[in-house]
Design goal:
Layout lengths: L1 E4 H6 L1 H9 L4 E5 L2 E6 L2 H6 L2 H10 L27 H8 L2
Parallel strand pairs: 1-2
Antiparallel strand pairs: 2-3
Amino acid sequence: MTSVSTRILKDQLSSYLHRVENGERIIVLRGGKPIAALVSLHDVQEQDEAVRLAALESRGLVTRPKRGLESRSFQRPTVPARGKLASEMVREDRR
């Protein structure tokens, strides 16, 4: 894998993007330390969502719910009908 500093990347962005389009992975360095990776969008989209979620969870960036929410669909809370509609009360007030 190729690594490049942010300064050089900024100066030669087009050439590095062309290399990424051709399948190369580029590690971006700031102060000599890796901070990011340039990968093709095609490679990112190929990863399964569950794999990406597991990777985020292993890094401590997300926490999965304790109970499975997949089987339950969202249901809007029901509002009990109490008395008159607001529009009816406004009409009565205007009389």
